[in-house]
Amino acid sequence: ELVSEISKIISFAFRLLCNIFAGMVLLFVMAFLIPDANIVFYGLEFFVGLIQALVFGLLTLIFMASASAGHHGDEH
């Protein structure tokens, strides 16, 4: 059970890191290729960031609810 909980946290952290890194790479590449249209990609990255914040917030709530759920042994 401990390995499962630790692996959830590590997976969560790597997913967040990779999403941030991918957005940064997209902005750098687009700034190099099309410098004038970079403001469009900043807006796109902001929109993706809002969606990611919602997803990570919901996942955090789910992880916290499952971690704090009682295991009373009531068999139904």
Give the topology.
Blueprint: H1 2-33, H2 38-68
Helix pairs in contact: 1-2
Uncertain ranges: none
Question: Pairing-aware structural class of the strands and helices?
Answer: mainly alpha
Major sheet description? none
Radius of gyration: 18 Å
Query: So how many helices?
Result: 2
Distance N to C terminus = 22 Å
Residue fraction in strands: under 5%
Give me the oligomer status.
single chain
Which outline best applies? elongated
Helix content: over 70%
- The helix/strand order is HH
Q: Mean of residue pLDDT?
A: 84
Number of DSSP strand runs: 0
Q: How does this model look, in words?
A:
- This protein has helices at residues 2-33, 38-68.
- It is mainly alpha-helical.
- The protein is elongated, with a radius of gyration of 18 Å.
- It starts with a helix and ends in an 8-residue tail after the last helix.
- 0% of the residues are buried.
- The model has no long low-confidence stretch (mean pLDDT 84).
